[in-house]
Amino acid sequence: MDQFATAGHQLLVNQVPITQLVDRVGQTPFYAYDRSVIKQNIAQLRAELPGKIKLHYAIKANPMPALIDFIAPLVDGLDVASSAELIHALNSSVAPTQVSFAGPGKRDAELQMALASGIIINIESENELKRVIALSEQSGYRANVALRINPDFELKSSGMKMGGGAQQFGIDAEAVVNILPLLQQPSVNFRGLHIFTGSQNLSAASICEAHRGIFALAAKIKQQLKLDLAHLNIGGGFGIPYFPGETVLDIKPIATELKGLLEQYQSEFATTEVIIELGRFLVGNAGLYVSRVTDIKQSRGETFVIVDGGMHHHLAASGNFGQVIRKNYPVAIANKMNLPTGDNVTITGPLCTPLDLLAKNMSFPQIEVGDIVAIYQSGAYGFTASPREFLSHPQPIEVLV
Ligand SMILES: *Cc1c(COP(=O)(O)O)cnc(C)c1O
Do residues 152 and 173 lie in contact, with contact meaning Cβ atoms separated by under 8 Å? Predict the structure, then answer.
């Protein structure tokens, strides 16, 4: 996990030694997000992707307000998936016209907020479009609308598929022509298409294949609708490595493929803004979940290290956030870096359930009570994707360093 440097035996979070950071935060457990890593992730993407590609941050990966403020000037737009995320986005420096709102089953109140703020609504169903038109006619706010398309292909080797087959997301590609009359209503300002096929993908070849499919489908729909696309949001789904054997996604082949597609479809999309929306890839590797060892015990030949944090704060690291087979996240004893490791131990949290597991049979330097345990790759889908009320233990806090 070389995005974090070390000094002596200390893990550094944006130059701050972990022991000092624990003192500064005033409690364990906590989440720490490293600004320099986020900045580096975005700079590297920008350097590799064609300049024409716009980069959006999908807030649901990590909606900490300070982090959104930090990212806002580094990206071209924000994607939100709830009214609370919309408020965060509107509080940031990003212009409302560069904010889009996706997600099935948006409530009238949410749609009304979206209309009044002038953001783009990614329409997930024909019925949702009808509701938007009715609300727009009532309120007089013109609706900036993009269609989310459920493509007729899948993103292969994806951790989570969100397109292809039958889906609660988007309008089936073959059904789009049916809603053309709705798009021509005077209250509708049709902006473009949104095609998000899946999440947590580590295969550049699969992402390239999806991008080819997305460009072809978008060109076909544009022809069917005979409407200009101000933007084409091609989703994202760029993954990060969590488990042994997984490697960092290579952006270069994706960038090369995109460059080719932009050339190939130059006449169709000459005036179209092409957007990639990423959550995890921008922030996931920048986050640590930090807890402290409260007890160490032996049970029938095995060593259990118990920390003051656990699955209630970090469901994904415990293996209970959609994983089929539990695997260990990368974990370090953050105040004992660069020391030889010993026998395997198991690290658990304090909850009264065997699901509360943070590291199963992993090898670390000699652990003592008071040591600091850091779980890497915790910047996305951690704090807000965990059942923090479960067992009513103290809440973790979040810091941006
Ligand atoms: C969740 C989501 C994202 C972000 O996915 P990541 O895997 O975190 O990059 C982007 N767009 C939409 C529509 C989403 O639902």
Answer: yes
Residues 370 and 271 in one domain: no
Its pTM surpasses 0.90: yes
Q: Which atom of ligand 1 is nearest to the CA of 200?
A: 7
User: Is 196 a pocket residue for ligand 1 (Cβ < 6 Å)?
Assistant: yes
Are residues 251 and 297 both part of a single domain? no
Q: Could you give the CA distance from residue 372 to residue 21 in angstroms, rounded to a whole number?
A: 11
pLDDT digits (tens, 9 = 90+) for 216-256: 999 999 999 999 999 999 999 999 999 999 999 999 999 99
Ligand 1 neighbourhood includes 58 CB (under 6 angstroms): yes
Q: What is the mean pLDDT of residues 348-361?
A: 97
Q: Residue written as tokens 């420096």?
A: 93
Ligand 1 in contact with 380 (CB < 6 A)? yes
Q: Ligand 1: does its nearest atom lie under 6 Å from the Cβ of 207?
A: no
Residue 50 lies in a domain: no
Whichever domain contains 328, its CATH number is: 2.40.37.10
Q: Is 46 part of any domain?
A: no
Which residue's alpha carbon is at the smallest distance from atom 2 of ligand 1? Answer: 58
Largest CA distance in the chain: 73
Whether residues 147 and 183 fall in one domain = yes
From the CA of 381, give the closest atom in ligand 1. 8
Q: Rounded distance, CA 136 to CA 90, Å?
A: 20
Structurally, how many domains does the chain consist of? 2
Compute the average pLDDT of residues 5-32.
Answer: 98
Question: Which of 244, 260, 278 represents a domain boundary (last residue)?
Answer: 278
Do 315 and 256 belong together in one domain?
Answer: no
Ligand 1 pocket residue status of 273, Cβ below 6 Å: no
What is the 277 CA–ligand 1 centroid distance (Å)? 7
CA-nearest of 330, 332, 312, 345 to 372 is: 332
Is the CB of 240 inside a 6 Å radius of any atom of ligand 1?
no
Domain of 18 in residue numbering reads as 6-32+285-400
Q: Nearest-CA neighbor of 316 among 210, 236, 199?
A: 199
